[in-house]
Structures are given as structure tokens and as C-alpha cells.
Request: fold
Amino acid sequence: MTGGSGLKDLIACNTHISSIIDDNLSYAGYNISELMDNDASFEEVIYLLWNLHLPNKAEFDSFVKELRENYAISDAVEQCIMIQSRSHLHPMSVLRSTVSLLGVYNVNAEDNSEEATYEQSIQLMAKMPTIIATFARLREGKTPVAPREDLGFAANFLYMLNGEEPTPLQVKALNRALVLHADHELNA
Reply:
């Protein structure tokens, strides 16, 4: 039996969102190295991937405000995470199930309009770190930590996960990791 070339040189689809040319990764035409060198936040990169341009100050402030206003999860969702916090359940299974559950509590879940889809996207992006941190803490027998709207995406996640405000270096490290993997996670 001889081995084939697999998927080498096969184009699965064309996209304007990301590309790799000569081993250089770019998001919507922005080189990932330049984004990281300029300390782009995860929020800026999410905005870039959703809108195909970096936000100006007003766009960024509005986007961040929308995310922060949607960090919190309801007590009912937290209770469902508690039920799932058994050690035999895989964290991704818990995240998948809980994200599906969010639709039960969203009165616009079946609305496919552009406005409703945007609102749902904001809510999902904002709540996933809260779900993950809540699950991690419950699984360790700890009380969940409520999100803080005064913290950015990475800082808030680390705060909820560890129960203490992170250092600037910890926030920068997580932001870089999130930026580097943003396109993969959003398009998986």
C-alpha cells in the first residue's frame, strides 16, 4: 500500500478572514506579528475578525462595553454548570451543553436577523469565559467568582478563574495567547 499526498495543496475554501502566506499568519490583512507587537487586545482582534477592520476608538469602546455588559450568567445557568461539574465530564462537553442552554434563556434565539445574530454573538463571546471559569472553580470545590465589568476580557477571565486580580504580565500573556489563537477558535 502506498501513501497518498493527503490534503497537500488542496484548497478547502477561500476566505478573507485569515491567511498564511510564506509562513506569515494574517487576520483580515493584518499580520499577526504586528498585532502582537502592538499589544492588540483580544477584543480588538475579535472586532477585526467580525468586521474585517480594526476598530477606531468609538467602535472599540462600544464593542468592549457590549461585551462587558454581557459577562454575567444567570443563577439558573450556574446551577446547570454545577450539575455538570462532575469529574467524568469533559470540559468541552460542559461548554457545549451550557452554550446550547443559553439559547433557552434568550428570547431572540430563533431570530436570524442580522441584529439578533450580532446580539447572540456578543452574548456568547462574553459568557464563554464566565462559563469556563465557573466550571473550573466548581469542579475544584470552589465558589464561582462573579465577573467584573471593569476588567477587560483576559483580565476578567483570570480574575474569575483565580479569585484575585491578575498582574499586568499575566493579562498580557493571556491576551497574546488569545490573539494568536483567535481565528482558529472562532472558525473551528
Notes: Residues 184-188 have pLDDT under 50 and may be disordered. The longest helix spans residues 114-139. DSSP finds eight helices and three strands in the chain.
